[in-house]
Design goal:
Number of helices: 15
Shape: elongated
Strand content: 15-25%
Oligomer: single chain
Helix content: 40-55%
Number of strands: 16
Radius of gyration: 24 Å
Length: 398
């Protein structure tokens, strides 16, 4: 029986490997106590049972003792044989026990889109899977499921996945979408319908931004998250650059509207003529200009392989965006619409760089490209950008 422990802040993961039976339980108990004694300040203990092959009554007593000591205790990645024992003895009713995740492979599967936190593949005609980047935690994956459900209840047209799986050493979310395709793929396949698709895209933004997020919701504050992302990338930029990005974000008015914050055409699926969202990892509440600024950053000024990430040539994506934003602002006086576009473009300048906080494993070449673009997109335009920021308060949300 092998025992190991990993600790991060006040969370600890106890890894059990082998057979936890009468012959090994006494030594295992001593090893566990020794490991926990060296990991002080633990408030949450997770037992990783992926490599646990067997458990007897003496092993169950060890788990019960841990559950009594740690209020936030759970057992994860439990293999079928061990799960059956825990279920039969009633342990699944008195503590948090999670089965081992199903294993999938995406070898040979079509890539639908590539984003900052993962890649979306089509498994077959009815099923797609989002594979998260290496290093993504199960809690981050569960957060996306939680946000999907929350947004769905609020009225966002969202595809909800209830199935977390493994793809090699990475986590994945499986979505069942009958005869659905990305909006990018539809536009690329039928460019003659671009105006129709752009209007649907604009209507989707309008639908989201009409939803008010009630106080007490689990949907987080988008501005606060944006600030944290800016602070996270201090390793890449000098403090004056960080301060400038924070000034832009701090000028955005407060609001309580539902925001997707990664609404690109590859993140909207077309199913029976209606749009449905599949990527909910960044959902928040705030002012619509932040959501539109994020979208502008992806659809217009994206850093990286546009065709691969967005799913269509840049020129087609630019045309889609121009038409969509005109539809979104339709009905406003021309001078007001012009200011709105300038405000969206300025907010997008922050997203051009804050997205680097989505992962600590982006290639150095990508990071350097962003660093080299800062002067062009923000630094050399500081006076203009700050002047536009002064107009942000004019954009009121009824």
């Amino acid at each position: 029986m092998n025992i190991d422990i990993r600790k991060e802040n006040d969370n600890a993961t106890l890894i059990l490997a082998g057979r936890l039976d009468t012959a090994t339980s006494a030594q295992a108990s001593a090893d566990i106590e020794r490991a926990l004694a060296g990991a002080t300040g633990i408030s949450r203990l997770t037992c990783d049972a992926m490599q646990l092959d067997y458990i007897s009554s003496s092993g169950l007593r060890i788990l019960l003792g841990l559950a009594k000591r740690y209020k936030d205790f759970r057992i994860v990645e439990v293999q079928p044989v061990v799960y059956d024992v825990l279920d039969t003895t009633g342990f699944t009713k008195i503590m948090n026990v999670e089965r081992a995740l199903r294993q999938f492979t995406v070898d040979g599967c079509e890539i639908i889109g590539v984003g900052g936190v993962g890649t979306v593949y089509r498994l077959n005609g009815d099923t797609i899977i989002k594979v998260f980047r290496e290093g993504t935690t199960i809690d981050e994956v569960r957060r996306e499921i939680t946000m999907s459900k929350e947004a769905f209840v609020l009225g966002m047209p969202t595809a909800i996945s209830f199935d977390v799986v493994r793809v090699g050493s990475q986590y994945g979310l499986v979505y069942e979408l009958l005869q659905a395709d990305t909006l990018s793929a539809c536009i690329k396949r039928e460019p003659g319908r671009i105006d129709e698709f752009a209007k649907k895209f604009a209507d989707l933004f309008r639908q989201l931004h009409a939803i008010e997020v009630p106080s007490g919701s689990s949907v987080p504050c988008a501005i606060e998250r944006e600030r944290q992302q800016i602070l996270h990338i201090r390793r890449y930029f000098p403090q004056e650059s960080i301060d400038l990005m924070l000034r832009i974000v701090d000028a955005i008015p407060n609001a309580n509207r539902l925001l997707h914050l990664d609404l690109q055409t590859k993140n909207a699926m077309v199913q029976e003529g209606e749009l449905m969202l599949i990527d909910m990892g960044e959902v928040g509440y705030g002012h619509p200009m932040l959501d539109l600024g994020h979208a502008y950053s992806a659809m217009v000024t994206l850093v990286g392989d546009y065709d691969k990430i967005i799913g269509m040539p840049r020129e087609l994506g630019l045309s889609t965006w121009r038409r969509a934003i005109d539809y979104y602002l339709e009905g406003l006086p021309s001078d007001v619409a012009k200011r709105r576009k300038a405000q969206i473009e300025v907010v997008s300048c922050v997203r051009n760089f804050s997205w680097l906080a989505l992962s600590d494993s982006f290639p150095e070449a990508v990071v350097n490209e962003c660093k080299n673009l800062f002067a062009e997109r923000i630094g050399n335009r500081q006076d203009y950008i700050l002047d536009v920021c002064k107009t942000f308060s004019e954009w009121t949300v009824d």
